[in-house]
Amino acid sequence: MKILVCISSVPDTTSKINFTADKSAFDKNGIQWVINPLDEFALTKAVKLQESQGATVTVINVGDATTEPVIRKALAIGANDAVRVNLDPKDSFSTAKEIASVAQNGGYDLILCGKESIDYNGGSVPGMVAQLLNQPFVNASVGLEVNGAEATAVREIEGGKETISVKLPAVFAGQKGLVDEKDLIIPNMRGIMSARTKPLQVVEPVSAEVKVQGVSYDSVPPRAAVKMVSPDNLDELVRLLHEEAKVI
Amino acid sequence: MAVFVYAENINGVYKKAAFEAVSYAKAVADQTGDTVTAISVNPTDSSDLLYKYGASKVINIKDEGLKNFSAKAYAQAVSEVADGNIIVFPHTTDASSVAPMLAVMKNYSLITNVLEAPESQSPLQVKRKAFSGKGFMHAKADGTGVILTVSQNAFGVKENAVSGSEEVKNLSVSNEDTKVISHEQSSGKLDLKEAEIVVSAGRGLKGPENWGMVEDLANVLGAATACSKPVSDIGWRPHTEHVGQTGKAIAPNLYIAIGISGAIQHLAGVNSSKTIVVINSDPEAPFFKSADYGVVGDAFQIVPALTEKIKALKG
Ligand SMILES: Cc1cc2nc3c(=O)[nH]c(=O)nc-3n(C[C@H](O)[C@H](O)[C@H](O)COP(=O)(O)OP(=O)(O)OC[C@H]3O[C@@H](n4cnc5c(N)ncnc54)[C@H](O)[C@@H]3O)c2cc1C
């Protein structure tokens, strides 16, 4: 079984988000980059399938050379090899197109992604890859087992969950629950050492067709100063919520 | 040319997110001088519900093959009937799975998580959520065909009654790649992403046995319940309730945070809430900096007392 895991390199979750002075771009100064947390669930699931079913796991990232430390981290977590498409991605479609192009001839049984990236929150790449490859797509996956040419996936639905069988090859977008939080793999020294020698292939983009452009960015305006209410005067809190904020 | 909108239903019943998407489509159509055509798959609810928010035509797709949800089959069905340049979806789990597949099928631009009506038409430009609520992006579509997904509770449900007509379309889309084995839906529980009020609690509650008071407060307010990430990691609450950067992003009118420190990753999922109330025993808790109203004190005393006072207000 061959698995392709799509990983995105995103600002560490504690990052303060700033934009350049002309507001035309995200300010990358001083940012620590990490594997998109939702992709980590997908990667760990793939490594678990590698252990239990002898799968090979390839990670793919569309990004310029600055994303390589994050790719090496994915190799340290346990992927066998990696592909980097040498393109600083500008939108979901261009990213999906590059992933699909690499996947096209790779013969992957499963493509695993995170449900969305925590930077641009597109939530679009996995579904686009599936459609470009004409494969079924399961979003918000919180469980996945593979049996031969079929997978059983559990997906989150509004107010519940649904278990479905899916013909492979297929694309799954995962989130917390796909593996347990406590099972997320933290690379050990051996993993880090071996990651240095694992193959990381760099391929040039096939197309840089962009369909959506980020024209400008704004920060979230600060909230007005908090109004503190004494715990002995909850009537005042109720009054404020009722009369001032008008939310109850 | 009509603005199309996907009106999502669950087991035939329209969701609030569907009414919000129709309201949004109506605002777009008013900008372009067009009308709104809503598309729904096997609804049982009346189309009158959609006319009320501005749809002047409702296309009901009837297809036994679409009884079970499949992103690909649904995208195929929508693509067969939507022939306008703008297609609006709610940003729900299912609809936001269909939208990217449809965008590829139709070769349209896709802009997700939109917050407001477009800032301009041709080229279409719109404000959307980015950086998990820590910023906004003004996104411009290249090309004329555009699919938009509307972030839940951002635009709001707006009544705008028009007279409408209904058309039934019989399709038979093939849906062979996925098969539903079982389906579990907890009935009667308010959908967290749709809720106007959310009562949420964190590790400060010390254990799952203490959630009764959280639920009591939620009940008197008609609110949904949520929690911080460690709470769902330890298993005190189901992970479907976890809000934040790696959980659900919500935007209720009122968010009440009890015993939650207000870490940046938690804020990322809740800072779009219109009003935030924080109850925390630590006056230095970072959450107070992002709150509208704060109470420093022990949740175990404050929450039951607050519940009683709200009960009294509601009579
Ligand atoms: C990659 C990554 C992603 C993350 N994503 C998320 C996410 O999506 N959502 C999320 O929530 N977190 C997320 N986190 C975790 C986040 O950093 C915090 O650890 C978490 O939000 C803290 O939860 P908490 O406030 O419930 O617990 P704590 O930090 O333990 O805070 C408990 C609070 O309760 C207060 N308290 C204690 N007793 C009482 C009492 N009797 N009455 C009133 N108050 C009391 C304390 O003063 C304290 O402020 C993420 C972390 C990482 C690294």
Automatic annotation (TrEMBL), chain A:
Record key words, sorted: Electron transport, Transport
SUPFAM superfamilies (UniProt xref): Adenine nucleotide alpha hydrolases-like (SSF52402)
Ranges for domain Electron transfer flavoprotein alpha/beta-subunit N-terminal: 23-212
Protein's UniProt keywords contain Electron transport: yes
Gene3D superfamilies reported in the protein's UniProt record: HUPs
CDD domains on file: ETF_beta
Keyword Transport belongs to the record: yes
InterPro entries assigned to the protein according to its UniProt record, in alphabetical order: ETF_a/b_N (IPR014730), ETF_b (IPR012255), ETF_beta_N (IPR033948), Rossmann-like_a/b/a_fold (IPR014729)
Domain of life the protein comes from: Bacteria
Family stated for the protein in its record: Belongs to the ETF beta-subunit/FixA family.
Protein name: Electron transfer flavoprotein subunit beta
Upper classification of the organism: Bacteria, Pseudomonadati, Bacteroidota, Flavobacteriia, Flavobacteriales
From TrEMBL, chain B:
Claim: Electron transport is one of the keywords in the record: yes
Keyword annotations: Electron transport, Transport
Tagged with keyword Transport: yes
Coiled coil: none
Annotated Pfam families: ETF (PF01012), ETF_alpha (PF00766)
InterPro entries named among the record's database cross-references: DHS-like_NAD/FAD-binding_dom, ETF_a/b_N, ETF_a/FixB, ETF_asu_C, Rossmann-like_a/b/a_fold
Domain Electron transfer flavoprotein alpha/beta-subunit N-terminal: 3-190
Family to which the UniProt record says this protein belongs: Belongs to the ETF alpha-subunit/FixB family.
Protein name: Electron transfer flavoprotein subunit alpha/FixB family protein
Taxonomic path: Bacteria, Pseudomonadati, Bacteroidota, Flavobacteriia, Flavobacteriales
